[in-house]
Design brief:
Helix content: over 70%
Low-confidence stretches: none
Number of strands: 0
Largest sheet: none
Distance between the termini: 24 Å
Shape: elongated
Radius of gyration: 16 Å
Strand content: under 5%
Oligomer: single chain
Mean pLDDT: 93
Structural class: mainly alpha
C-alpha cells in the first residue's frame, strides 16, 4: 500500500461525511447541532490535513510552487478552517448552516484538486519505495493516535 492509497481511502470517508452533512444540515433545528457537526468535521479534517501536509505536500512543495499551486493549497485550507470556525461561533441557525455548508463545498473542491494535482505529482516525482515508506509512517502515526 502507498500513502496515496491511504489518503484516497480517507477521502472516501470524508466524501461520505460531506454527503451526510449536505443532507442533514438543512434539517437541523438547533444551532448547537450545526456547531457540533462543525467541530467534528474540524477535528477530522485537522488530523487529515496535518498528515497530508507533513507526508505529501512538504516533499512536493517545490513542484507545487513551480505550477503555482502552493499558495492556493494553503489558502484553501485557511478558507475551510475559517468557515468551520464561523459555523461554531454563529449566533443563529441560518448563519451556522451557511458556514458549515460552505466548508463542505470548499473541502470537496480542495479534495478534488488534491486528487487531480497532488496525488499524480507524488506518483510522478516520488519513488514507489518512498510512497510505501510514507504509508508505513502514516500507519505508525495512526496507531499511536488510537487509544
Amino acid at each position: 500500500m502507498t500513502i496515496i492509497e491511504a489518503l484516497l481511502a480517507e477521502h472516501v470517508v470524508f466524501h461520505n461525511l460531506f454527503d451526510y452533512a449536505e443532507r442533514a444540515v438543512p434539517k437541523l433545528k438547533a444551532v448547537g447541532e450545526v456547531r457540533s457537526l462543525a467541530r467534528l468535521m474540524e477535528s477530522l479534517l485537522a488530523a487529515h490535513s496535518l498528515t497530508e501536509e507533513e507526508l505529501l505536500v512538504q516533499p512536493l512543495e517545490h513542484c507545487l510552487e513551480q505550477i503555482g499551486q502552493c499558495e492556493t493549497f494553503h489558502q484553501e485550507h485557511e478558507e475551510i478552517d475559517h468557515n468551520l470556525k464561523q459555523a461554531q461561533m454563529a449566533k443563529n441557525l441560518k448563519q451556522a448552516r451557511l458556514c458549515l455548508l460552505a466548508a463542505v463545498a470548499s473541502s470537496r473542491k480542495h479534495f478534488d484538486k488534491e486528487e487531480r494535482i497532488v496525488f499524480p505529482l507524488a506518483e510522478k516525482h516520488l519513488k514507489a519505495r518512498t510512497l510505501t515508506g510514507l504509508w508505513n509512517t502514516w500507519k505508525e502515526q495512526r496507531n499511536r493516535s488510537t487509544p
